[in-house]
Amino acid sequence: QVQLVESGGGLVQAGDSLRLSCVASGRTVSSYAMGWFRQAPGKEREFVAAIKWNGVRTYYADSVKGRFTISRDNAKNTIYLQMNSLKPEDTAVYYCAADAVAYSPLVHSTQSQYDYWGQGTQVTVSS
């Protein structure tokens, strides 16, 4: 079993930055791709970013490309989401997730590919 705990959310103004963290426990996630997803009020949960197990490949939703950066520190069993130039439409609960397959050559944007999920952290961006 893997437990994922997100932190770093908060209330910021448009244009500000935040860095989210996701710490894994119970099992190392260094062998697994990791992803960030978000769910805005009244909307479906959507893909934000993903990173390959070894960190050499990343993948972003078009809506965050150029503003958000996903990274990982496998020694700390932690992944990050650096969010710059935040917009009100980035307001959502942000979730991290761990891929189901070890050493996958792929990074996925589909939720069904992820086995473990955190409880989420709220990000609110005011205009």
Q: What does the model show?
A:
The termini are far apart. The protein is globular and about 40 Å long. It has 127 residues and is mostly beta strands. Helices cover 0% and strands 53% of the residues. It has strands spanning 3-7, 10-13, 18-25, 32-39, 46-51, 58-60, 68-73, 78-83, 92-102, 114-117, 121-126.
Summary tags:
mainly beta, seven-stranded mixed sheet, four-stranded antiparallel sheet
Brief characterization of the structure:
This protein has 127 residues and is mainly β.
Structural class: mainly beta
Tell me about the biggest sheet? 7 strands, mixed
The residue fraction in helices comes out at under 10%
Integer average pLDDT = 95
Set out the fold topology.
Layout: E1 3-7, E2 10-13, E3 18-25, E4 32-39, E5 46-51, E6 58-60, E7 68-73, E8 78-83, E9 92-102, E10 114-117, E11 121-126
Parallel strand pairs: 2-11
Antiparallel strand pairs: 1-3, 3-8, 4-5, 4-9, 5-6, 7-8, 9-10, 9-11
